[in-house]
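Title: Comparing notes on inverse folding

I've been comparing how different people in this forum approach sequence design from structure. To keep things fair, I'm posting one structure and asking everyone to reply with a full sequence. Here's the target:
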């Protein structure tokens, strides 16, 4: 496995432990449907929380920069697909967790409600 994949898996495991310690119930990790993927899906109260985890080994690159508009839209589409498969209604929440460092020394930041889905309109074809 490539180094960045190993780092990413480690970061997702740390993020999962972090959320559990704060009262979240983990529902899925690395959920996939076709090309759609969500790192962590958790619940807390009546909210289904969709979490993007960004892990970096150094502070040279801000992990939040990797969560651009395209990535946010991808998360929203993925969450919509997941929520449609459930028999219950949940309020969706989009969180980002960033981890910078390594197993011996790292910082973690949780950004709850990191963004709201944008309104998308589509023009009909004529």
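Reply #1:
Here's my take.
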């Amino acid at each position: 496995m490539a180094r960045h994949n190993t780092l990413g898996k480690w970061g997702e495991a740390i993020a999962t432990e972090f959320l559990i310690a704060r009262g979240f119930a983990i529902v899925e990790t690395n959920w996939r449907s076709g090309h759609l993927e969500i790192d962590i899906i958790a619940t807390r109260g009546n909210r289904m929380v969709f979490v993007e985890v960004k892990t970096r080994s150094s502070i040279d690159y801000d992990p939040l920069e990797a969560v651009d508009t395209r990535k946010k839209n991808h998360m929203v589409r993925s969450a919509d697909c997941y929520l449609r498969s459930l028999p219950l209604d949940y309020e969706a929440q989009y969180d980002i967790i960033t981890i910078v460092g390594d197993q011996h020394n790292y910082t973690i930041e949780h950004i709850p409600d990191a963004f709201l889905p944008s309104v998308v309109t589509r023009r009909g074809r004529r």
